Amino acid sequence: MKKNFNINGKVQQIEFSPKDTLLDLLRNNDYTEVKDGCREGSCGTCTVLLDGNPVNSCMVFAASVGEKVVTTVKGIGTNLEPHPIQKAFAEAGAVQCGYCTPGMVLSTYALLSKNNNPTEEDIKTALDGNLCRCTGYVKIIDAVKLAAEKMRNNLK
Fold first, then answer.
1. DSSP E strands: which ranges in the chain?
2. CATH of the domain at 22
3. What CA–CA distance (Å, rounded) separates 53 from 106?
4. pLDDT-based confidence at 156, cuts 50/70/90?
5. What are the contacts of 113-122 at 24+ separation with CB within 8 A?
6. Which of 28, 50, 75 is the last residue of a domain?
7. What is the rounded CA–CA span in Å between residue 129 and residue 123?
8. CA dist list (Å): 108 to 13, 21, 28
9. Helices (H) and strands (E) in the chain, counts
10. Contacts of 67 (CB under 8 A, 6+ apart)
11. 16 with 62: CB under 8 angstroms?
12. DSSP string for 85-124
């Protein structure tokens, strides 16, 4: 199959198998920032934004994406110009091994896009589908709070 996909603001025609998940499509086309974890929808390492909403890309058939906008972590910031959320995760020491970080960052992005002053409970709910085996979540929650503050105050 061939279909147009809008990934990180760039529309491109991609050939894929009807059985491919969005995770397969992304990884097969060099979007390696989308991590391949459990393939069961329970770890969140493959989280991307689909029309601004976090989804486990391992649970979405590529063919079902249609005209939706797919955003990976590279779609919100780069190494040279990181998003304030990415900066906050680094500053708070919430990156450890980094495997869960792209999914955590995108779930945070979705949360802060809707709620720029979340409670700790709001943060925990937003990150509920993202597992981290390194940090114990304290630094991740601190990073989300710092990111919210940076974004409210337009800080970089």
1. 2-7, 10-15, 47-50, 53-56, 69-71
2. 3.10.20.30
3. 9
4. low
5. 113/52, 116/148, 116/151, 116/152, 117/148, 117/152, 118/144, 118/148, 120/145
6. 75
7. 11
8. 29, 23, 26
9. 5, 5
10. 4, 6
11. yes
12. HHHHHHHTT--TT-SSHHHHHHHHHHHHHH-SS--HHHHH
What is the overall mean pLDDT for the chain? 95
pLDDT digit string (tens) for 48-98? 999 999 999 999 999 999 899 999 999 999 889 999 999 999 999 999 899
- Whether 88 and 55 map to the same domain: the answer is no
Tell me how far CA of residue 89 lies from CA of 11, 26, 110, 112, 150, in angstroms. 29, 24, 15, 14, 12
Find the mean pLDDT for residues 126-141. 92
pLDDT digits (tens, 9 = 90+) for 99-114: 999 999 999 999 999 9
What does DSSP say about strands 69-71 and 2-7: parallel, antiparallel, or unpaired? Answer: parallel
Distance, in Å, from the CA atom of 5 to the CA atom of 44, rounded to the nearest integer, reads 22
Domain that holds residue 48: 2-75
Last residue of one domain, picked from the residues 47, 75, 103: 75
